[in-house]
Inverse folding.
């Protein structure tokens, strides 16, 4: 094992290389560009035995990955924001055709106004496309998640694609010491992709053909079953990964100091790393706070949330995106999962850090302080936009 | 009976659900005869997405993947890349798409695949409109045609302007091989497709494929009308190999475009002056093609 000081984007590239992706099809977009550049370098230097299709758009990148995967190849792509949302139609095509594509997505804000900084709307807006979604907290987790994701996605009980998210710049362009596993260990963990069906001239079949109303629902139900099975596969893979590589980033919901907590904050991505610091600080002061990191937003950790709800009085849900619903997407889904649960803690939604605005320890201390008071004071304003400038939203934005 | 050069093996079987007299059906049949079993086909949204049969029926003897409307060029790039990754060299990869899926919504993905010099076949079966969705105009609908979105009405609102010249767009990509083919000329059709097997890189075919349903003519006139498109010089048969033009059929007796137009309900409304304009266009394009052939003769 080697330790390298690398960015999150290089973690994606090294992860793709270690997993021996046979076909890469990708298109550049800030802040993902260094992923496609690094992969090009690997291929040009013969460090990677890969067919690299330098497509003319993200839409074509995903379409090429789908067809390559149906032809039996392990495929990879990476994108961000406008690239991901351009793919929308073909993302649904990918899951429907049961292709275990793995993709890196650098979470970047959607324009207008133009912004290249961290925000989760791009991937949150793809939550209904049938892709598994992992939100990484560190560069190490980015790399490890790729290896895990191929293993989960390619499991014949699952056969669904995965996207791994990293926050723009906070991970994509920030270096960290990352353990790069030995190739032989990854090979032993992740055997070559062996699809149950593929485009094969010796066994000609039609793929993705028209179905009438008498069968369409059954195809979707098969996917629903795969989702349910995926949860167990995720736990198994996470455990096997820990045995092999000695690291565990959590499974669906990554609980930190939640066991005897009174209040918990739910967050995803790099803001969870900041929240960990604040939790430690508050724990030292005897305050019973915890963090539940949404590692997988898909499949959704409903059971894990219901178990958590049994233990705590109040839950704050931090959304780094806004979806123009009754609160952010994480919030509405957490609330939905808890509605039929026997224990219903108080819930509050915090919208924070949009467009790359820092979510600082001071900000998170404020949220925890409020959560600690909530049992006495009630949740106050249910959906709160955190750290808005003075005067906004009623004042004028220059 | 004369001897034919067309392979006898059928890879398209009864059970397909094409309309009576569908030119697109013949285009697939001849294409598969030319390429044989070791062929993978990608089909976007178009009539052919339905024609091979609804699940679980399947009328072809080659593997086929249905893809989204605009992605054919990318899909075949992906299949080729996967086969290359596996070291499989002897399988033909074909994108088989309609005119709308090619000249309009899919032109970007096709352009990318050709620019990357991907080793693929791309067959555009041209029925000159979006037929699967019910006869709406496409960028390949010819001047003067009625469609449901160029409905003539009381104002003469038929399709205005010429159709996109896809073969020239391919030539502008410096494509190794491109050709026109026509279901009324199966030997020429099969020969040109088979020729592509010896050419590495992208091969683009513009396949003329009348649609009785959309063109408003009896199904039994399909082959006759397809032949008249060639004999009137509206759809010349030629190929362009590394920039060199070769006309593969020079009609002995040119027929007026009027004879071709008047067999089809979609041109019924056309006044004389528009028919004359279409005639002038056909004459001009034919003259241009002859000169290109002459000009590139020693390429
Ligand atoms: C993104 C998208 N837009 C629109 C459609 C609807 N659609 C399906 S087939 C088709 C027309 C296809 O026309 P063409 O490519 O000429 O093939 P044809 O039906 O004539 O065989 C359209 C508009 C679609 N499937 N996808
Ligand atoms: Mg058409």
């Amino acid at each position: 094992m080697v330790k390298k000081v690398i960015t999150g984007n290089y973690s994606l590239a090294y992860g793709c290389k270690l997993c021996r992706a046979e076909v890469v099809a990708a298109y550049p977009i800030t802040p993902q560009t260094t992923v496609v550049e690094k992969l090009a370098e690997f291929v040009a230097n013969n460090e990677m035995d890969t067919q690299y299709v330098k497509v003319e758009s993200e839409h074509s990148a995903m379409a090429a990955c789908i067809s390559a995967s149906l032809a039996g190849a392990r495929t990879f792509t990476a994108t961000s924001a406008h690239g991901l949302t351009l793919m929308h139609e073909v993302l649904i095509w990918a899951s429907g055709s049961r292709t275990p594509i793995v993709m890196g997505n650098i979470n970047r804000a959607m324009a207008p106004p133009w912004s290249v900084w961290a925000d989760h709307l791009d991937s949150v807006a793809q939550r209904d496309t049938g892709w598994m979604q992992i939100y990484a907290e560190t560069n190490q987790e980015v790399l490890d998640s790729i290896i895990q994701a191929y293993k989960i996605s390619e499991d014949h009980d699952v056969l669904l694609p995965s996207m791994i998210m990293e926050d723009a710049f906070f991970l994509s362009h920030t270096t960290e010491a990352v353990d790069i596993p030995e190739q032989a260990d990854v090979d032993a963990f992740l055997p070559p992709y062996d699809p149950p069906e593929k485009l094969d001239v010796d066994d000609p079949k039609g793929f993705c053909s028209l179905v009438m109303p008498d069968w369409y629902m059954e195809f979707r139900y098969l996917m629903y079953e795969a989702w349910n099975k995926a949860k167990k596969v995720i736990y198994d893979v996470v455990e096997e990964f820990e045995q092999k590589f000695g690291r565990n980033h959590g499974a669906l919901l990554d609980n930190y100091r939640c066991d005897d907590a009174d209040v918990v904050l739910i967050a995803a991505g790099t803001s969870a790393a900041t929240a960990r610091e604040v939790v430690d600080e508050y724990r030292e002061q005897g305050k019973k706070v915890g963090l539940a990191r949404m590692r997988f937003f898909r499949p959704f950790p409903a059971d894990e949330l219901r178990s958590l709800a049994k233990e705590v009085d109040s839950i704050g849900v931090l959304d780094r995106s806004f979806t123009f619903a009754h609160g952010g997407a994480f919030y509405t889904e957490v609330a939905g999962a808890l509605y039929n649960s026997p224990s219903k803690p108080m819930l509050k939604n915090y919208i924070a850090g949009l467009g790359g605005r820092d979510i600082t320890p001071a900000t998170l201390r404020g949220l925890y302080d409020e959560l600690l008071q909530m049992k006495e004071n009630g949740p106050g304003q249910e959906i709160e936009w955190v750290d808005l400038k003075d005067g906004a939203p009623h004042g004028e934005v220059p | 009976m004369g001897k034919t050069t067309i392979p006898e093996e059928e890879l398209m079987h009864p059970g397909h659900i094409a309309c009576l007299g569908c030119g697109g059906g013949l285009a697939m049949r001849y294409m598969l005869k030319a390429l044989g079993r070791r062929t993978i086909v990608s089909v976007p949204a178009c009539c052919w997405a339905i024609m091979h049969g609804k699940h679980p029926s399947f009328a072809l003897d080659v593997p086929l993947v249905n893809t989204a409307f605009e992605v054919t060029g990318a899909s075949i790039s992906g299949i080729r890349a996967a086969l290359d990754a596996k070291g499989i060299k002897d399988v033909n990869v074909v994108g088989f798409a309609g005119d709308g899926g090619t000249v309009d919504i899919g032109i970007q993905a096709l352009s990318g695949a050709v620019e990357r010099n991907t080793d693929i076949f791309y067959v555009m079966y041209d029925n000159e409109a979006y037929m699967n969705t019910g006869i709406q105009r496409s960028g390949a609908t010819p001047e003067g045609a009625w469609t449901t979105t160029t409905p003539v009405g009381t104002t003469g609102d038929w399709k205005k302007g010429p159709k996109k010249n896809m073969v020239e767009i391919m030539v502008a990509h410096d494509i190794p091989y491109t050709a026109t083919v026509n279901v009324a000329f199966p030997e020429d059709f099969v020969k040109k497709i088979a020729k592509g097997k010896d050419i590495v890189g992208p091969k683009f075919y513009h396949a003329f494929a009348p649609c009785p349903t959309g063109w408003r003519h009896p199904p039994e006139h399909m082959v006759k009308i397809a032949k008249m498109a060639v004999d009137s010089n509206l759809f010349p048969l030629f190929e362009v190999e590394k920039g060199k033009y070769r006309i593969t059929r020079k009609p002995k007796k040119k027929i007026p475009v009027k004879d071709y137009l008047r067999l089809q309900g979609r041109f019924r409304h056309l006044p004389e002056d528009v028919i004359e304009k279409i005639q002038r266009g056909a004459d001009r394009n034919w003259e241009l093609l002859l000169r290109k052939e002459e000009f590139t003769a020693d390429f």
Observations:
- The CA atoms of residues 319 and 331 of chain A lie 7 Å apart.
- The mean pLDDT of chain A is 96.
- Chain A has 13 helices and 16 strands.
- The interface with chain B takes residues 22-23, 25, 49-51, 53-57, 59-61, 63-73, 75, 89-90, 93, 199-201, 203-212, 215 of chain A (CB under 8 Å).
